[in-house]
Design brief:
about 280 residues, alpha+beta, endopeptidase fold (from Nostoc punctiforme), 6-stranded antiparallel beta sheet, two-stranded parallel ribbon, about 15% strand, rod-shaped
């Protein structure tokens, strides 16, 4: 190989000045852009440090607000009280109306009951009057057939023929008017009787007050024979002053008495249930 032969150089080829200038301009532009971006970046990321101040309430505004709240609460409470009071008034009015209606119905019921009772009493009085009239007629007919001094052979007793007069008539009339009433132990009228209750009430028509029980009633007055009875005499069963039953002799051999719960007040012949004795108070 020749010493003059060309040996390639290992150095980089030289660049032209124009290319170098172009490259330097480009690099400078890039660096400027980066510098601008870097300068702008921190400014945008800077945190906000400003604070918002809330308005403060001065003394007058605070007082007015408190007054308004208190007034609103008071108004609400008053409305609640008014509502409760109205409810109570409505309930009281409803209760009063209900009670008034019930009282009216009760008064009407009582008035109707009293009206029916009065009608029943009038009907019973008419019926008793009719029975009394019929019995008086029958008694008068029977008395006419009885001897004044002798014992009637059919009746087996000596009976008066004269009608009752004066106090005896009042006693007899009252006793006969109760015929048909119920017998109730301890009854003293006006529609139910026991034996001594009826005798006591009958004698009260003549202004005579008798004891309440039969034993005491039979101990009153004067003892008389059953052959010499007069209307108004008290008949008794058992021993005198210890009798267990009493009735009123009404004349014509008949007596009226509150016998028992099965018969009630009846008028019967002495032979129906012969008494033990009799007493006279008139």
């Amino acid at each position: 190989m020749s010493h003059t032969a060309h040996i390639p150089s290992h150095r980089k080829p030289r660049r032209s000045s124009s290319k170098l200038a172009l490259r330097a301009g480009v690099a400078g532009g890039v660096l400027s852009t980066i510098a601008v971006a870097g300068a702008a970046g921190p400014a945008q990321a800077e945190p906000v440090t400003d604070t918002i101040e809330m308005p403060t309430l001065n003394g007058d505004l605070s007082t007015n607000l408190s007054s308004a709240v208190a007034a609103s609460a008071e108004a609400t409470q008053q409305i609640a009280l008014d509502t409760e009071l109205q409810a109570l008034e409505d309930a009281s009015a409803a209760k009063a109306a209900k009670e008034a209606k019930q009282a009216k119905q009760e008064a009407e019921r009582k008035a109707e009951a009293e009206r029916k009772a009065a009608e029943k009493a009038r009907a019973e009085a008419r019926e008793r009057a009719n029975r009394t009239s019929e019995r008086t007629t029958l008694s008068a007919s029977a008395s006419a057939t009885v001897s004044d001094s002798g014992r009637d052979s059919d009746e087996g007793g000596s009976y008066d023929s004269a009608p009752a007069t004066g106090s005896a008539a009042a006693i007899v009339a009252f006793a006969r008017a109760q015929v048909g009433d119920a017998y109730v132990m301890g009854g003293t009228g006006p529609n139910s009787w026991d034996c001594s209750g009826l005798v006591q009430a009958a004698y009260r028509q003549a202004g005579i007050d008798l004891p309440r029980v039969s034993g005491a009633q039979s101990s009153m007055g004067t003892s008389v024979s059953l052959d010499n009875l007069q209307p108004g005499d008290i008949l008794y069963w058992g021993s005198r002053s210890n009798s267990y039953h009493v009735a009123i002799y009404v004349g014509g051999g008949q007596f009226v008495g509150a016998q028992n719960p099965g018969t009630g007040v009846v008028e019967r012949s002495l032979d129906y249930d012969a008494p033990s004795g009799a007493v006279r108070l008139l």
